């Protein structure tokens, strides 16, 4: 390998190392952090965190809509328990819960 090629590779490696070290210092995430990990700030025109409740930005979740997921999870657990019980009794796995009592 010639001295010029070796010098070129060395210079390229040094430039790459310089960019790799300087890149995190140049990064900007768009927030002003009060301390590390506390970087929440409202967008312009959006109320502060403690002023959201009761404003037009308050999501006002309907309790019936929120309960739908827990209801579907309970139904899924009941179906899985019925499948497991049937498998323990018969040794056959039946996916369709309606067919478990039919046989």
Automatic annotation (TrEMBL):
Superkingdom classification of source: Bacteria
EC number(s) reported in the record: 1.1.2.7
Molecular function terms from GO: alcohol dehydrogenase (cytochrome c(L)) activity; alcohol dehydrogenase (NAD+) activity
InterPro entries (UniProt xref): Meth_DH_bsu (IPR003420), Meth_DH_bsu_sf (IPR036557)
SUPFAM superfamilies in the record: Methanol dehydrogenase subunit
Position of the signal peptide: 1-27
Keyword vocabulary terms for this entry: Disulfide bond, Methanol utilization, Oxidoreductase, Signal
Region of interest (Disordered), ranges: 50-71
Catalytic activity field: 2 Fe(III)-[cytochrome cL] + a primary alcohol = 2 Fe(II)-[cytochrome cL] + an aldehyde + 2 H(+)
Pfam families linked to this entry: MDH
Disulfide bonds: 33-39
BP term (GO), one: methanol oxidation
Basic and acidic residues bias locations: 50-68
Subunit composition and interactions: Heterotetramer composed of 2 alpha and 2 beta subunits.
The family this protein is said to belong to: Belongs to the methanol dehydrogenase subunit 2 family.
The protein's role, per its UniProt record: Catalyzes the oxidation of primary alcohols including methanol.
Name of the protein in its database record: Methanol dehydrogenase [cytochrome c] subunit 2
Organism in which the protein naturally occurs: Methylopila jiangsuensis
């Amino acid at each position: 390998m010639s001295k010029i090629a070796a010098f070129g590779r060395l210079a390229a490696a040094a430039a790459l190392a310089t960019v790799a070290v300087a890149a995190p210092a140049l990064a900007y995430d768009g927030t002003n952090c009060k301390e590390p990990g506390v970087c929440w700030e409202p967008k312009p025109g959006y109320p502060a965190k403690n002023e959201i409740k009761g404003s037009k930005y308050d999501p006002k979740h309907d309790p019936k809509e929120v309960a739908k997921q827990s209801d579907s999870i309970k139904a899924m657990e009941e179906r899985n328990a019925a499948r497991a019980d049937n498998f323990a009794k018969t040794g056959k796995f039946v996916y369709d819960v309606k067919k478990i009592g039919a046989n």
